[in-house]
Task: structure prediction
Amino acid sequence: MSIQKVLRTLKTVKRTLPEKPHREIPYSISKTLVSSSSSSSSSSSSSSSSSSSLGILSNLSPAKLHQILASPEHKPSQCLRFFNFIIENQSLISFKPDLQAHLTLIFRLLMARRFSDAENVLKSVSIDEYPSAKFDQVLETFDHMKKNGVNIDERTCTVHLFTLKRIDEMRLGLEFLYRMIESGIEISVYSLTVVVGGLCKSGEIKKCRELVEDMLSKGIKPNIVTYNIMIDACAKRWNFEELNSILALMEKEGEAFNVNTYKILIDGYSSFGKIEEAEKLLLEMHDKDLKADTHMYNLIINGYCKQGLVDRAVSVFDKMTNRDINFNFDTFWALVNGICKSGKMESAMVYVSKMQSKGIELDEALFNTLVDGFYNKGMIDEALALQIEMEKKGFDFDISICSKILRGLCKSKRFEEAEELVDMMVKRQSSTHESPCSSPRY
Result:
């Protein structure tokens, strides 16, 4: 609907209708909506009438807009067209339609069984713009529809649940979900999962699990996505007591893990130090012919290395080889770093060679780790050789490690080599301004 048509019709109506308080605008709007699609005139005539017609819309207020939208004189379709016109042409009025206006229109559309239109209007509402959002009016509309036998669409209700989740009002979301159930709406796993996600986001994991158990008793069955949301919330918070309850519930209901479930659990267990449990899950994946990725193996290798269990880390690495799982830099970084800390430098260099044979180069942090490992093992020549290699590659030195090598060289009266190392350090520091070394990936 064009602005010229609306204004032209408003002008005509204003000249012909008698003045009646609080009724002129609603009646004029009604006539405008009805006649705008069929009326026509020249663009010059429309332009000349604009100034006088703008007065009608400029006098529109939030209260009068509500009167228009609520009045039975105006069909829901007319109200929707006019409302959309206002939204698209905000400059014609002095205010922005509030939440009350949206809810009034939504109610009219729902009563007319125009569920798709009602849903679109609901989606357009930004609750964040209304800090004192009138959620009670949503419930009032909901109850009114129920009392009058109007079919309530679950999809429209789910939009409201999404909004409550977005603004962290899942207490109201939980209440609304139960209101939906009590009203006889056939609840799908989709609506349940929205509420579960909101509760987990706010840390209400126990309440979330209790909700799922209650829904199961009502015949509403969660799916693997619902369970994974709860498992992820537990794993990230290391809430293993609640996690065990959820896993027991899954087993009772016969819900099998998918790849994402294993990823979440392996990440959670390994980050907490439960590496054996994480590895058992990895083996379980293979037994079920589920593809474990490189990242899962890296987590376990790194976890064992942190605990000083290098032999177990090497065993996991060998399993990667046997199962044709691709290695990446993080795989070798975790393993070589762990082996260096255990003092097995010959073994560390074997894996460095494997790393380089796959086209994966050492970075600055790993070079420094190897240099430190050789020094701690008393292998100063090897440490110095790597330090010189770092200089050739333009890497920064770890000053503390270089200082150790210098002390070792001086103690062995290898003063010429010590002087060369000092020259390299000074040259490197002056060119890099003592840039910090790279940090480990894990």
